[in-house]
Write a sequence for this structure.
């Protein structure tokens, strides 16, 4: 059984969206009717997976799907259940992912009253033609207005999602998006290149040659534009896809990358108890049916020692916090530095990584090929 007494983060998955975006492979349903049942189910799982004494929580993250779909009653139910069964720190970071078309003045004010103190807004691009190809449910005007509205409601800790390497986009439109974001002066940006995932509309279009998609070279050139532009405006590229000003890092996501324990509630949500991972079934009906038995049914993925070491290497190298050789040796009794002396020298001399005291950190050039670098540092699976 997994042990969640020493939690750091709590993730709640809201598995509903108004529309299916053409690139998305997250778990969600566009059938919104079973929402009330789902909220009861989420509250039940929160209760069932709480422990005595109550687990301390430093960050809460409502992700999805589309959490901004939630009614006041639904969000109140979840917040009250969390407060009842978990020991939420007074300074907890409480994030809600929101789509621009869900945001109005009243809703933004309500979120503030409900205890949300960070918003992550799914903007993706300010180009209506591209938003249309992505099948997003908002337009550029709504995206701009949404930032204004949440600021008027008193939110300062705001993150926006931006995508690059998109069909119908160009280097010029990406630069225009970055320019708009920079002028909005948001403290945090999450920037993702399009990856065509299986079983998505884009994947079908690609297989059927219905549309041209950006190449790997376009992807790399776009990623470089994002990095170089945001560096000019004092954003810290602190994780492969994350940029922050004045240390406004996402505390919740940072906690994942530092391998702190977290509990994921809801269909498809993942958890980590510091040693092993688990996930819930990615099916709304079956998830609720399982809870009807009076027990949560996370599927446990026992990790071998080698998998744990490799995960540690991979998650640490994603960030500017870096791969800490001393912590690694304390945790796993293996000295990476002495196991890979030539490789580490080579990565540093090629400008892909650098040493910062006892840590190995990737440069931007290293971020570009981080998967290859990690694969070379990984311990072989037995
Ligand atoms: S709104 Fe988000 S979760 Fe929903 S389909 Fe679009 S990208 Fe996926």
């Amino acid at each position: 059984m997994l042990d969640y007494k020493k939690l750091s983060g709590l993730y709640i998955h809201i598995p509903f969206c108004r529309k299916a975006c053409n690139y998305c492979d997250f778990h969600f349903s566009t059938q919104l009717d079973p929402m009330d049942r789902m909220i009861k189910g989420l509250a039940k799982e929160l209760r069932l997976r709480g422990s005595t004494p109550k687990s301390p929580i430093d960050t809460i993250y409502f992700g999805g799907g589309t959490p901004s779909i939630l009614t006041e009653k639904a969000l109140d139910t979840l917040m009250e259940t969390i407060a009842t069964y978990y020991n939420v720190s007074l300074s907890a970071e409480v994030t809600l992912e929101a789509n621009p078309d869900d945001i109005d003045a009243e809703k933004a004010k309500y979120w503030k009253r409900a205890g949300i103190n960070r918003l992550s807004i799914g903007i993706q691009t300010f180009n209506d033609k591209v938003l249309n190809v992505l099948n997003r449910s908002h337009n550029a005007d709504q995206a701009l207005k949404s930032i204004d509205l949440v600021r008027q409601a008193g939110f300062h800790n705001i993150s926006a999602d931006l995508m690059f390497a998109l069909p119908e986009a160009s280097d010029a439109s990406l630069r225009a998006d970055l320019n708009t974001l920079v002028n909005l002066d948001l403290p945090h940006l999450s920037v993702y290149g399009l990856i065509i995932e299986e079983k998505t509309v884009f994947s079908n279009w690609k297989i059927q040659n219905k549309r041209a998609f950006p190449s790997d070279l376009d992807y790399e050139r776009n990623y470089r534009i994002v990095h170089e532009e945001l560096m000019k405006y004092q954003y810290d590229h602190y994780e492969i896809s994350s940029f922050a000003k004045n240390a406004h890092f996402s505390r919740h996501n940072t906690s994942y990358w530092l391998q702190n324990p977290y509990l994921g509630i809801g269909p498809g949500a993942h958890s980590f108890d510091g040693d092993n991972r688990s996930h819930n079934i990615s099916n709304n009906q079956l998830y609720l049916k399982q809870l009807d038995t009076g027990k949560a049914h996370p599927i446990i993925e026992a990790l071998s020692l080698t998998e744990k070491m490799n995960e540690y290497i991979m998650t640490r190298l994603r960030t500017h916090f870096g791969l800490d050789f001393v912590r690694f040796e304390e945790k796993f009794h293996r000295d990476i530095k002495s196991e890979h002396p030539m490789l580490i020298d080579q990565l540093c001399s090629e400008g892909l990584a650098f040493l910062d005291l006892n840590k190995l950190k990737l440069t931007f050039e290293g971020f570009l090929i981080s998967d290859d670098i990690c694969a070379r540092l990984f311990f072989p699976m037995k």
Remarks:
- The domain at 9-257 is CATH 3.20.20.70 (TIM Barrel).
- The chain has two domains: 9-257, 305-377.
- The chain has a mean pLDDT of 95.
- The longest helix spans residues 216-232.
